């Protein structure tokens, strides 16, 4: 499973990636999770099962969906993002991927 997170610059989502990786590892789930700035998304998105947008770039949801119509795109909940709730964000991504 490949999950790509995108935010304004890629820095704040980097911390969330670590929390998501820790949760996936604790569950024995193989996951490739990475973060990037929205401007780098095109070079990072290949092979992604889902794109997660940081709340600060949530206004770009429709543009990203249009640019990558074959990949589900989800905006991370502001509360989960602020609390760095890697488990919940990972589980939300899993549900979306599984429902495809």
From TrEMBL:
Signal sequence annotation: none
Top-level lineage group: Bacteria
Keyword Transport included in the entry's annotation: yes
GO molecular function: kinase activity; protein-N(PI)-phosphohistidine-sugar phosphotransferase activity
GO BP annotations listed: phosphoenolpyruvate-dependent sugar phosphotransferase system
Pfam families assigned: PTS_IIB
Gene3D superfamilies with a match to the protein in the record: 3.40.50.2300
Keywords: Kinase, Phosphoprotein, Phosphotransferase system, Sugar transport, Transferase, Transport
Listed PROSITE patterns: PTS_EIIB_TYPE_3
Domain PTS EIIB type-3: 1-100
InterPro entries in alphabetical order: PTS_EIIB-like_sf, PTS_EIIB_2/3, PTS_EIIB_3, PTS_sugar-specific_EIIB
Phosphocysteine modified-residue sites: 7
The protein, known as: PTS sugar transporter subunit IIB
Species assigned in the record: Enterococcus ureilyticus
């Amino acid at each position: 499973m490949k999950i790509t997170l995108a935010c304004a610059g890629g820095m704040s989502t980097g911390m969330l990636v670590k929390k998501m990786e820790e949760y996936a590892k604790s569950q024995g789930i193989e996951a490739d999770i990475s973060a990037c700035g929205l401007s780098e998304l095109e070079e990072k998105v290949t092979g992604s099962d889902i794109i997660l947008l940081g709340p600060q770039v949530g206004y770009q949801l429709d543009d990203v969906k249009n640019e990558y119509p074959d990949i589900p795109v989800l905006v991370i909940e502001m509360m989960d993002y602020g609390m760095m709730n890697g488990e919940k964000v990972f589980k939300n991504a899993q549900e979306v991927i599984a429902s495809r």
